[in-house]
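Hi,

Apologies if this is the wrong queue. I'm a grad student, and the batch job for 6-phosphogluconolactonase from Occultella glacieicola produced an output file that my downstream script rejects. I'm not sure whether the problem is my script or the file. Here is the sequence I used:
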Amino acid sequence: MRSSAHQHGPERAVVVHPDAAALAEATAARLLLAILDAQAVRHPVHVALTGGTVGIRLLERARHSPLAAIVDWTGVHLWWGDERFVPRADSERNEGQARAALIDHLPIPARNVHPMAATEDAATAEDGAAAYATELAAAAGPDDERSPTFDVVLLGMGPDAHVASLFPGHPALAATGTTAVAVHDSPKPPPDRISLTFEALAGARQVWLVVAGAEKAEAVRRALGGAADVREAPAGAVRGRDVTLWLLDTAAAGIDAPRV
Ligand SMILES: O=C1O[C@H](COP(=O)(O)O)[C@@H](O)[C@H](O)[C@H]1O
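Support response: The file is valid. Your script probably expects a header line. Output copied below for reference.
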């Protein structure tokens, strides 16, 4: 199945897995192989992680993959697509969940891990977003002075078609001229967040939207529809520079699971 929408960049590809467990397992292997492929030609490699149910589950599967032992983690930098602006120990933090699922189990230098601010680090989400933009700029390469070029950006998607913390109809959708934005009054708790902007996401070589569950099928359908409006379906507007991959389970794809 291939999407036919071209208005924002390269064509999107869709891969459907039988269920959420298979999606997480396959995406974990895909991610580790993508890192290995990138390490064959570049140093360092930059990956942006996502929170969310399947986003954390795939990290847990990556931890148990034999491929994880082949990656040179000293040459990998981990960033986040979004974060909940709450205390560092809050279980809602995408960072804490990702550390428990994978990062704490990797031989990766602490300086290679780039969490967004917690409330202990910044007075406001605006300050946290500005600090993240500065950190991204400090790691920038020749392609873009504002950010390193992400090899892979992982994104989950909510049932309302939000990605990262870019929610339908929210003012943060319109943020330009920066790589990170503060988000208040998020329709999904917690209300205060920090997110990469569309501009930052668009600089990635590969963007993967990893989505499971029947409750997201309608949002997938809208986002992949040719006329997807960014304000209604932010996920539909995201494109990688080289690759935009939608990784779904059958429920999110809105098709019956194959009989075995
Ligand atoms: O709040 C968030 O939600 C989305 C999707 O989460 P899910 O549990 O519905 O899969 C996630 O991608 C994002 O990083 C997170 O902050």
